[in-house]
Amino acid sequence: MTGAGGFIGHHLVTYLVSKGFWVRGADIKRPEYSNSMAHEFLIGDLRDPTNCLAATQGIDDVYHLAADMGGIGYITGNHAVIARNNTLMNIGMLDAATHSGASRFLYSSSACVYPHHLQISPEVVPLREDDAWPAAPEEGYGLEKLFAEKLCEYYGQDHGIQTRVVRFHNVYGPLGTYDGGREKAPAAICRKIAGLADGGEVEIWGDGQQTRSFMYVDDCVEGIYRIMESGYSAPLNLGTDELVTIDELVDIVSDIAGKSVRKRHDLSKPQGVRGRNSDNSRLREILGWEPSRSVREGLVPTYAWIASQVGGPPALAEADADLARAVI
Fold first, then answer.
1. Judging by beta carbons within 10 Å of its beta carbon (0-12, 13-18, 19+), is residue 316 exposed, middle or buried?
2. 201 neighbors 212 (Cβ within 8 angstroms)
3. pLDDT computed for residue 312 by the predictor
4. Predicted pLDDT of residue 71
């Protein structure tokens, strides 16, 4: 598995090992917050094809999660770097998996492949897999993801390797990046509120009315595994369809923290598309399953973990504290 040192990859390693699989992890770094359970862990830059070959040698199922990515500030300011790095890794891993005789190759794509004109209203119509074409993806990150989806299709047609394509919609949870510029909105908001005194001010990028759906990491890794086992090769959304505004996300986190906060909106900061939601119709049809945790349920353990990292008191209500312990 590539990206095993990252947030989703680290959780997926743990999930697969718990199911009895032998797992080789590969990444440019080890997990930052917890030791990996991978049976073997290769440290290497996957832009180098020789490291891709080392990662795939003797492996039946390749989960390719490695990517240069981050929050909205990072992906809007680094188009060339992101597109180059990820394209090199994606081509290297597809070539290596094919050369090494892997049976299946799962590629982690993104909802950023969807056209901007379908995401200009907060009351966005949930995005269906077929909506990605005609193509008008987000610049840089979204474009290289869509290109790699087609590469998977071509490698399946020309070389016979079974491919899977997962379009992630906003994943969050414990052990994820929460500062430094690459964090996503749920982690950033948890960090900001954890560091505030009661009644403090939290900065929100944009007017707070932009909407998203958010998926808890445990649902994400189960979905990845189910998609790998599904026999379905076309792209599939993997996300929830619970649409919330960023202001509502702040309200949920502040309530979990037991704090009253004041919102300050910074309209000069990037906020991405106006609205994005996942249509899970095809996911339900193919898998007979979809992510089920509510945003609040997932944010309870996420906030508790981030608060413990930044030194802020979790301040959870008793029922939420029990839920955090149960989920973590």
1. buried
2. no
3. 54
4. 87
Other residues' Cβ atoms within 10 Å of the Cβ of residue 101? 12
Q: Please give the full DSSP string across 208-238, using - where no structure is assigned.
A: S--EEE-EEHHHHHHHHHHHHHH---SEEEE
Strand partners, 205: 266
Backbone region of residue 89 per phi and psi (left: phi > 0; alpha: psi in -120 to 50; beta: other values): alpha
Pair of tokens at residue 139: 């610049």
**Global pTM?**
0.94
Contact (Cβ atoms closer than 8 angstroms) between residue 194 and residue 316:
no
Annotated catalytic residue within 114, 141, 172, 216: 141
Look up 141 and say whether it is catalytic: yes
Residues in the chain: 328
* CA gap 112, 134 in Å, rounded: 14
CA 220 to chain centroid, in Å, comes to 8
157 touches 94 (CB < 8 A) = no
Phi, psi of 48 (to 5 degrees): -95, 120
Distance CA 254, CA 296 (A): 11
Q: Do the bridges between strand 211-213 and strand 162-168 make them parallel or antiparallel, or are there none, so unpaired?
A: unpaired
The model's pLDDT over 303-327, given as tens digits with 9 standing for 90+, comes to 999 999 998 555 444 444 443 334 3
Characterise 181 by phi-psi region: left (phi > 0), alpha (psi -120 to 50), beta (else).
left
Q: Are 250 and 261 in contact (CB under 8 A)?
A: yes
Amino acid 7: pLDDT: 97
SS3 content of the chain, % helix, strand, coil (to 5): 45, 15, 40
